Amino acid sequence: MNRRNRILLSCVYWAFVAYVFVPLILMVLMGFKDSKFIGFPIRSYTLDWYMGVFEDAETISAFLYSVAIAVLSTIGSIIVGTWIAVLLEGRKFWGRAVIFGMTILPALIPGIISAIAFRIYARYLGIEPGMGAIVWAHAVHNVPFVVLVVMARLSTLPKSQIEAARDLGADPLIAFLRITFPYLVPAIMGASIFCLLLSFDDFVRSFFLGGYEPTLPVLIFAKLKSGMSPEINAIATAALLLTAVIGVWAERFTRRMNKDS
Questions:
Q1: What angle do CA 243, 246, 248 make, to 5 degrees?
Q2: Is the CB of residue 217 less than 8 Å from the CB of residue 206?
Q3: Which backbone phi and psi does 99 adopt, to 5 degrees?
Q4: Segment 69-80, tens digit of pLDDT
Q5: How many CA atoms lie within 13 A of 148 on its CB side?
Q6: Predicted pLDDT at 32
Q7: What CATH number is attached to the domain comprising 203?
Q8: What's the CA angle centered on 114, arms 142 and 82, to 5 degrees?
Q9: Which pTM was predicted?
């Protein structure tokens, strides 16, 4: 690669970095503005907006509600997704491609179309809008990502280990619990963190299937109707920091588990 191409790639890289991080930096700065409206110039700074986030009962309630939904939907998607991945990986049977395609389909459908379909189907099944409906929709949407991650991990599992366990008298369940499952733990943990963050951040399905109690993204959207204020920036910054910390921890955790395995 010549010097001209390196300079061009460097410019493209830093332009992309600026495109991603400059809006986030501005969002964080606006949360410190000592004014009821966002915008430049920032003549004075304050921590009142950030302190208000942790003192606002509505925001704390929406945050805990979002966490509960994320945890429950992740548990469901991990159970179903892992089972489907084990069923599909390394096996050839009639209808395998159809099952795989139907499993991946929720990740390919646009969010607004998916949310409307879930709303119609929930009404048909008699599921009332609220926490149960949101957990169900989030879990279905997250299953494809679990399947892809777990299948990728399963494809690297040496088949000789399972065959050795079977030769020593282990039945399929024991072989799965003692050989396959421990090998899948890093992938399951990585998929779990991804699904948690995906569910926590899901606005469209939460908006269409939610009841009277809002999730955090829905609450932020509701506050936007009354105009942009530093309070919204403070809430978004707190959520951003939380997801960033969880993401960094998850990356280091899964890397450590991959080394150990």
A1: 110
A2: yes
A3: -60, -45
A4: 999 999 999 999
A5: 14
A6: 79
A7: 1.10.3720.10
A8: 20
A9: 0.82
Which residue is it, tokens 């208000």?
A: 52
- pLDDT of 126 over the 80 cut: yes
Read off the tokens for 250: 């998850």
Q: Which residues, 6+ apart, have CB-to-CB distance to 138 below 8 Å? A: 69, 70, 73, 77, 198, 199, 202, 205, 206
Higher pLDDT, 244 or 117: 117
Quick check: is 41 in a domain?
no
Whether 18 is in a domain gets the answer no
Q: At which residue do the structure tokens 């302190």 appear?
A: 51
Number of folded domains in the chain?
1
Q: Which amino acid is at 134?
A: I
Whether 10 is covered by a domain: the verdict is no
- Between CA 92 and CA 127 the distance in angstroms is 36
What tokens were used for 36?
């009821």
**Residue count (the chain):** 261
Single out the residue of 26, 19, 44, 24 nearest to residue 34, CA to CA.
Answer: 44
Q: Give the count of alpha carbons within 13 A of 67, CB side only.
A: 10
Buried b (16+ CB within 10 A) or exposed e, 43-68: eeeeeebbeebeebeebeebbebbbe
